[in-house]
Amino acid sequence: MQREMLQGKLHHAVVTECRLDYPGSLTVDLELIERAGLLVHQKIQLLNCHNGFRLETYLIAGERGKRQIIVNGAAARHAQKGDVVIIAGFALYDEREVIGHEPKVLVLDHHNAVVATFGTISG
Asked: Cα(118)–Cα(123) distance, rounded to whole angstroms?
């Protein structure tokens, strides 16, 4: 049996821009994607702490080190620059991989710099 588990999370990221005319997805600083153990084009959930809106989309690589969190396309109607969001990536794990699994969680400050890291990458 496989189970869908949290793989990595960017906690309290701040939206830096919204682009309604861009054709979808979420642009995130490539360094943050990699540090959270996630992959470009991976399916994620975007959870907006300001309005409670939740959506599924996928990651696009932003410029490394720019700390970008850009909500694109139709999703841009559900966020504003400055909103605090949680970006959660999930992966499928088999029963052996679930044992001892801990997601990688990066806690960000209001400039999207990493201030704390929890968990490890597994699977």
From this structure: 16
